[in-house]
Amino acid sequence: MKGEKVKKIIKTINIDVDKCNGCRACELICSAFHAQPKYSSNNPGRSRIRVIRDPLRDVYVPVYAGEYTPAECTGRDKYTIDGKEYEECAFCRASCPSRDVFKEPDSGLPLKCDMCESDPPLEEPMCVQWCLNDALTYEEREEEVEEEVEQEELEIGLEALADKFGLDKIVDTIVRMSESKKA
Amino acid sequence: MRYAETGFNLEIDLSRGSIERVETDPRLMELYFGGLGTNAKILWDRVPPEVEPFSPDNLLIFSTGLLCGTPAIGANRTIVSTLSPQTLLMAYSMMGGFFAPELKYAGYDKVIIRGKSPNLVYLWINNDKVEIRDASHLQGKGASETAELILQELKEPKAQVAAIGLAGENRVYMASIEHGRSSASRLGIGAVMGDKGIKAIAVRGTKDIDIARPDEFIELCNEVLEYIKARDDNPIPGVMPILAGLGSPQEMKIHDEKWHTTSFMWGNARTRRRDFWTEEIEEKWREIQESVRTRLISCYNCPMKCGAIISIPGISTYMMKCYSKLTYTMAAYSDLDFGFKIAQRATEYGVDGFSTPQAMAFALELYEAGILTDQDMPGMPSDTEGRFYWLLDRIVRREGIGDMLANGTYWAAQKIGKGAEEYAHNNIKKHEQLPLKLGMLNPVYFLMYCTGEKINITQIEGQFPQEQAFVKDWIQVPDEKFKQYFLDWEPRGEHSNPYYPTVQMSCEIVDWMEMMHYIDDALGMCAGLSSFPLKPPYHIHNYPAFISSATGIDIDEAGLSQVAKRNRTLVRAVNIRRGMRREDEKPPEDHWKKRFPELEEKLLDEYYKFKGWNTEGIPTKESLHELALDYVSEDFIKRGILRDTETIPTKATSKEKEKKEGGGSGP
User: Fold this and answer.
1) Which of A20, A30, A40 should one mutate to test binding to chain B, selecting the residue with the greatest count of B CBs within 10 A?
2) Which residue, A117, B21, B94, B334, is most buried by CB atoms nearer than 10 A?
């Protein structure tokens, strides 16, 4: 079963860490843009971008908030690049229980970069607009993707699980999960 | 609801170990904005003139500006105010970086510190949770070393730290408060921090800062960003490269130092080296700078890159800004690599990069003149660079001769005697000035040097271009008439210094420059985007809209200028009450070769009149009333500084004089 080719817009923020001057304007304007009403307040603690910043080690890395994850990874990673040591899980975009980044400071609810989705749409996300040093630049491109690729993947995954646990157990689990979701 | 400001101050009494969160009167914001303005108000209200700088009753105030923590680009300055141990007058020194916005996000406009802690402590402000913590393990540690250690022990890498080094702990009058790439250096405020027994303040904040009229405000911010971009693409033609753009002079970015090295004085503000800058030097200095500079960096919410990370093999990495790369180099008649190296140690010790090299060069001059001898300098190395390190180590520890030098050249000379006073030749009100010695008296600078309440002119510079092309789109002038003043101003001939600009014009120009600085210092705006560079993005015409839309109070240009005037007058009032008078208001005698005593008297007379001050420089009852500062005139009258019915000049009382002259004999 082959899906139809569909066009999808891929939005990319290019991050050039060499150009970052560490000013954190991106954090500020992100939180201001997402305030209700828009720009009525700001608080970098609520930002969906953070600059990992360790001046004396020349570490300046803007990282965006990605998907929320309820569980932390089994292990953690720590990168050293060109002799610079980065903090644990530095480049990970997840809002995850292992750390306090990308969470609303008061409620703890996860934050995720939405590329400043708005109506009418912005030309560029605000963080890019406010980065005059071009550490952040924005790019859009079109890609053709097969619509049902994801379903195929799902099937492959389920088959693997069925092999391991048996099909009955998988079905039971799915029923239980969907009932608890409804509740 | 409070907008732009948080409406709360943190009151810390170190003697009692108490911490209070105190709501402030919203009316104060309307009258003084914040920052320097409200600092001056607090010092006026709570620190009577009898209080000595090293008294538990002296206050040390860390203040944000009104716009800090809002999206206003470049509003990140921390304004630190206290009494200076060196001048015995009010000190306000400021720093950029990230401290003030973080403090706002933690929910405070100011931290007001009184009393003294019996042992060394640091303050940890984490939103509503505030602790006074033991700092005995940080004793003697460098300023940035301290910051690192605190972040580690708090496990809070996002906190911001302001700390003193050894110099502050030992109450060196040149001690700074260091914060990353920034420092509040002038007038010995680090010494007051050390005297209070507080090694550092760490702050972390995750609260909101609210804006009254968001759409209007953000539009203004976007305009400023656009303007900065345009200004970056179009540097001002015909001026030296470090002054062509915005920000503080771009010393970290640009290696061309022809102007500083050939116009400023070397040694103890002593020798001008007009032929210093050669192709060979330029090539060498470019190589040195590029080899040690890892990255150009900025302060909070600012696209400029006025600072740099400096990494020299074998020496800890540190951050530097602006002119300090040259102050040690030039004081020691040395080379740029020496400047970069010694600045690292000086930054960890936490000393002022202007006064300290001058005090060291002063000591070496006295040694050469035989006023200081080998007995005073036991074990001093024979090479100049080695001597600078040797002196620096002694100054920050107050060891031997270092104990006297630690009070700055004025007080050191008083103590050394034997003609040393002649060598302390570069001070105003006992404070070391930029090492500049020029030919012809400049009437505008004369007034700024004499009367500037900041007591150093590093950021009280003017906008003095004269070309038609520049004037054409010069939107920043408060009034069109200024354009003609500057167009007519010529280097030589009838319309040149010292009689042009005329006395009246000079008063008006100085008034404009001052107004912009007082606005910036109340808002926490970096002068590098406002009152310092040529054609800045912030000016008197767009500031009212910024302040109105941020705070919700409606203010126009006249109202804004009134607040600036009120703040300027109040800072002066604090100093007048501490005994400052006309006779203190003079530039270093040798600042200009050609002096004009009659003209100078007239300049001061007219400027005082222009400001509404009497001939002693004391604000009159009437002018204080106009500024809603009647509480100041009442106090002046009570103390006999002003008379009730007339505004006759009043000399400082003998008691005030005595205190002024005798109070600085060292701790």
Assistant:
1) A40
2) B94
| Domains in chain B: ranges and CATH | 8-204 (3.60.9.10), 235-375 (1.10.569.10)
What average pLDDT does range B402-426 have in this prediction?
98
| Predicted ipTM of the assembly | 0.93
Angle at B194 between CA B190 and CA B195, to 5 degrees: 115
How many other CB atoms are there within 10 angstroms of residue A143's CB atom? 9
Q: How confident is the model at residue B449 (pLDDT cuts 50, 70, 90)?
A: very high
User: Residue A165's pLDDT is what?
Assistant: 86
Structure pTM?
Answer: 0.93
- Whether residue A180 lies within 8 A of chain B, CB to CB, comes out as no
Reply yes or no: is the peptide bond before residue B71 cis, omega within 30 of 0. no
pLDDT digits (tens, 9 = 90+) for B566-601: 999 999 999 999 999 999 999 999 999 999 999 999
Check A23 against B228: CB less than 8 A apart: no
Contacts of B205 in chain A (CB under 8 A): 45
With b meaning 16 or more CB within 10 Å and e meaning fewer, what string describes B245-283? Answer: bbbbbbbbbbbebeebbeebbbbbbbebeeebbeeeeee
Residues from chain B contacting residue A36 (CB–CB below 8 Å): none
**CB of A98 within 8 Å of any CB in chain B?**
no
Beta bridge partners of B22: B9
Is the CB of residue B228 less than 8 Å from the CB of residue B150? Answer: no
- For the stretch B24-38, pLDDT in tens is 999 999 999 999 999
Of A22, A25, A41, the CB nearest to B210: A41
Size of interface A-B (CB pairs under 8 A): 99
* Closest residue to B298, CB basis, from A22, A41, A45: A22
Nearest alpha carbon to residue B111 among B196, B9, B38: B9
Which of B48, B59, B128 lies closest to B579, judged by CA?
B48
CA distance B305 to chain A (A): 7
Closest CA to A22 of B57, B158, B239, B231: B158
Chain A residue with Cα closest to B318: A56
Nearest CA-CA distance, residue A77 and chain B, Å: 18
Instruction: Compute the distance between CA of residue B259 and CA of residue A154 in angstroms, rounded to an integer.
Output: 69
Which is more confidently placed, B251 or B580?
B580
Three-state secondary-structure class, residue A73: coil
Using an 8 Å CB-CB cutoff, list chain A residues near B229: 132
Residue A41 pLDDT exceeds 50: yes
Altogether, the residues listed in chain B come to a count of 667
